[in-house]
Amino acid sequence: MNDLYFPCIFPRPGQLEVARRILDAYRKGAKLMIEAPNGFGKTSSALSAAYHIAAEYGAGVIYAVRTKREGERVLQEAKLFKEKFRIKVSAMLSMSDGCLLKKDELVKVEDELLPTYCLTHVMSKRCRYYERLSSPEALAWNQFESLSGVLNYATSNRFCPYMYSRRLSAESQIIVTTYNHILDKERLETLKATRENWREWMLICDEAHNISELAYTLNSRLISKKDVELAYSYALSKKNYNVAFVASTLINLFRQQKVNQNEMVLISLKSINNVTFKDRLRVVSSPNLPPAFDMFETRMQLSLMKLLEFCKHLAVSIDREDCRCFLINSEKGLSLKVCMLSADIDIKRYLFRSIVYLSATLGTNPSDFESYSVAQESAWNPSCVTLVDDTVTTAYSRRSEEMFRMISSRIENVRKNVRGPLAVFFTSYNVLHEVKASLSETVQSHCFVEEQSMSVGEQESVIDSFLNHIDGILMAVAGGKFAEGEDFKAGNLRSAVVVGLPLPPPSVELSERLKYISSVKGRKYAYESLVLVPAVNRVVQSAGRVVRNQRRKGVVILMDKRFAQRRIQELIPFWLKTNLFYLDCSNDIELRKIIGDFMEEER
Ligand code: SF4
């Protein structure tokens, strides 16, 4: 235990202890949750333990992260251990990034269809990128230091990057991957199939506070009315009467109830939960069903595939008491959504010797995990001043042009009074754009805005431009791409504003989830675990971007009157409350004084 290797000579207070606890959890075969503040350096601690597990026991570690960008950062840190350990490390690409064939299609193949799409094409020898995996370049072992490195190498050699990353993972002892490969049953089985000794492996989940919500999303399926109708026509034309029967039954469900534009309603599955329908559903959702098409080029065939995927999910949910079906009317038209409200992660199926959750904000946790909080037991205390401005709010009932103007004028004031780049995190893209529209044209010209669909490369380029722009303002969303796992080039962000408390918007779906979880675990637990804790987690994660560098001080401004509430304050971690002031940020003089005084005191 004393020979734990750390790439830096002076680890931060508590980092070695965290690494030791992870190693200890592995030895005991235990499940452990570690809560440590942002900027503490959890990744280095976890990697230190991971390399020891690989070197000492010949086993390995799966390091699961939320986003690809977080995965890139783990690979970057892993480089620091390379000199000391001769351990193979690789990254599993997602199918959405690593499938080359889908890019050749005339229609967009959605991510949830990719496993079936891939299987169909590989089995029928219709994927040339798969066939090229027998080329010498694809058979060679390569140690890549980034996800883009794997992707570019395979793409330039014209073989499948996804399958190639699987091949590299099968030979590695540390595998970096996104949660999808762990939470999705089929993908986990694929990963497990690559080797036999999983019972000797450890699973480390970074930013683990996201797991429950991701598991819920993965256990939900949506299908549009248009896709069901197209699949029905296609199935009839191919004389596939089982599929046609199921599709026509679902079409009737769409007709069961009216729903206004931009609303959703709960609909009953009683009318379809009968022996005849379930028998047909079982047949069409059977994995043995042969692909019903030869080519993959028309919208109808894609719709059929979506229907089959939806049916697979419906077949396992329909008899569950927590299964709910919603009819949604959005700008894309009508769709059906089937969800499993409890959607707990079945940790037993993971079969790993030991599991470790890491987070700055774990919130409500599984009961069979031991826990360790760095906050309570270490001297690590990120230096930060927190200002709470309770004169504004983004609460739904108080949103107005006037409110957005008040917020934008305070952001402009903060911009004037802090040095260096400033990040502003909003509750949603809507609020972001409303506030941005109220900023002066001059300030708008300094803004860098997060878009909902940005590639890793685009994110990288936004961060580069933002950090190089004097007076730059990054406008992003709490819970979005820049609010977690982003270290702004090793801690170059010192000031952040969080505008509003990002509570989930009221909806029929949320109310059903609250009702169900309340009936099982009580109302307080349901509200805290589904509403309050995830919202505060997003705030804390966003604020945590300014304490990524322990030698520099950070400024966090929480703009919303709800941040002054007692329960919210209780959920906020110690480091955000050590230097806390209440201030109306339109007060230029006070703002300058507090921020100036704090930033002048160097450690
Ligand atoms: S083998 Fe690769 S490129 Fe071919 S379909 Fe599967 S994921 Fe896509």
Average predicted local confidence, pLDDT? 88
- CATH A-level architecture of the largest domain: 3-Layer(aba) Sandwich
Counting helices, strands and paired strands, the structural category is alpha/beta
Q: What CATH first level of the largest domain would be assigned?
A: Alpha Beta
If you had to describe this structure to a student in words, what would you say it looks like?
This protein folds into 3 domains: 15-217 and 345-376, 3-Layer(aba) Sandwich (Rossmann fold), CATH 3.40.50; 221-340, Fumarase C, Chain B, domain 1 (Orthogonal Bundle); 382-600, Rossmann fold (3-Layer(aba) Sandwich). With 603 residues, the chain is an alpha/beta fold. The strands form 3 sheets. The protein has a 7-stranded parallel sheet with strand order 3-4-2-5-10-1-11, with helices on both faces. Strands 14-15-13-16-17-12-18 form a 7-stranded parallel sheet, sandwiched between helices. Strands 6-9-8-7 form a 4-stranded antiparallel sheet, sandwiched between helices. The chain is globular and about 75 Å long. The chain is built from 26 helices and 18 strands. Strand 14, helix 21 and strand 15 form a beta-alpha-beta unit. It starts with 14 loop residues before the first helix and ends with a helix. Helices cover 44% and strands 15% of the residues. The structure holds iron/sulfur cluster. Iron/sulfur cluster (SF4) binds at residues 95, 99-102, 118, 121-122, 127, 129-130, 160, 162-163. Iron/sulfur cluster binds next to helix 5, helix 6 and helix 9.
